[in-house]
Amino acid sequence: MDTTKDDAAMLAEAAQWQARDLAVLWHPCTQMAEHPHTLPLVPIARGEGAWLIGRDGRRYLDAVSSWWTNLFGHANPRIAEAIAEQARTLEHVILAGFSHAPAVQLAEELVRITPPGLTRVFFADNGSAGVEVALKMAFHHFVNRGQPQRRKFVALGNGYHGETIGALSVTDVPLYRRVYAPLLLQPLFAPSPDAYEAEPGESPEACALRRAEELEALFAANPGEICALILEPLVQCAGGMRMYHPVYLRRAREICDAHGTLLIADEIAVGFGRTGTLFACEQAGIAPDFMCLSKGLTGGFLPLAAVLTHERIYESFLDDSRERAFLHSHSYTGNPLACAAALATLAIFREQDVLGRNRLLAARMAELAAPFADHPQVADVRQTGMILAIELAADKASKTPFPAADRRGLRAYRHAIERGVVLRPLGDVLYWFPPYCVGEEELTLLADVTATAIAAATA
Ligand SMILES: *Cc1c(COP(=O)(O)O)cnc(C)c1O
Q1: Model confidence pTM above 0.85
Q2: Which of this chain's residues are annotated to bind substrate (predicted)?
Q3: 396: annotated binding-site residue?
Q4: According to the annotation, is 314 in a ligand binding site?
Q5: Is there a contact between 64 and 423 (Cβ–Cβ < 8 Å)?
Q6: Mind listing the domains of the chain with CATH numbers?
Q7: Residue-wise pLDDT tens digits, 114-170
Q8: CA of 268 to the centre of ligand 1 (A)
Q9: Which atom of ligand 1 is nearest to the CA of 67?
Q10: DSSP of 54-114, one letter per residue?
């Protein structure tokens, strides 16, 4: 077989897809002017396990689980089959006034596996939409309880909750928020408990406790006006994989209770085993009033979000008045295909010791990444379960960042793509967020490429 000719044909085909794409598509989270010169555009033909296979025949290790969605591998046969079977049976039905088994079974299963007290499930279509649901429900709950003055939200500095207007309002990542600020709700931002920002010599726990005191002061300054606190438990993912001590969650729960405020746990990125426990809240032994789930919920196959809440909150909406009801809807609410994908994903959790295997993988990730801490431009190597982050800095001791215009992370990205690994840094934070099906050899490759990517980014 003339492999050279095949290779040439595949390269030509990949180039064609690239050109057709750039002629008509507007890509998410992208400065389109950078394509294709600064940023390569990589047409993908198919996926297999932890790998993406390009139109040009090249293989790419998906170290970011395709934006943190994939758990058990691309084109996972079991999930694919569940969707196909559901598609041949019932692809969709309006969920107002109608019901179907996948939605019921999924809600039952989510109630069973989430922290105690979360007994009601509302479905939305994606993470941001799920956050909107939680924010609206929290406010509406207080309206129904005769406390309409409770309409302030508290969010954490450096937090991220999505891109729609409400979700972006409670987000504090300037790159995404700043332009739209004039359009947004004005929440109160409490300082992030992020351990990277601890005082010199301060432990992560002491830092979290100090930040909790500041949170309490914020609540005390706004008595009776705060409707809900929203946070990402343990890891602020989009904010640069910044991590904090679980004691902050315990204190946040106590502060919310003391002030009659609701707690919204956005586990959209950290849920489903990512941090070492099935849900991150478990590490603090708390149950939130709302839990938002999405991303890994369908194993990375289809968009779906679930918002879980208490019976007590659900009951405040029950009445003979339409106004008291939660009249929020999306056309595809509770889509059966997405529910079937989620059910297949949760069946894998039931049948396999996913968390046990993840513990071994996380330990291996820690070993492989340990040497990076010695690099003169690595200010921090941190890890929570299956998330490992490496923060680059111009000055290690003072943690002074590189000038943003240097685009150090972009250099690492381009280098890694050339070597067949998808590392997609957040600014100058390189991170590993692999699918759980990743193996020893793949982690070794990831570590090798990360080492040379760090060298390329800091040269
Ligand atoms: C990704 C993310 C969202 C938004 O989800 P989308 O499906 O992208 O809208 C919200 N919160 C957190 C913590 C996320 O990581």
Answers
A1: yes
A2: 67, 160, 295, 329, 424
A3: no
A4: no
A5: yes
A6: 3-75+354-458 (3.90.1150.10), 78-351 (3.40.640.10)
A7: 999 999 999 999 999 999 999 999 999 999 999 999 999 999 999 999 999 999 999
A8: 6
A9: 1
A10: ETTS-EEEETTHHHHT-SS-BT-HHHHHHHHHHHHH-S---SSS---HHHHHHHHHHHHHS
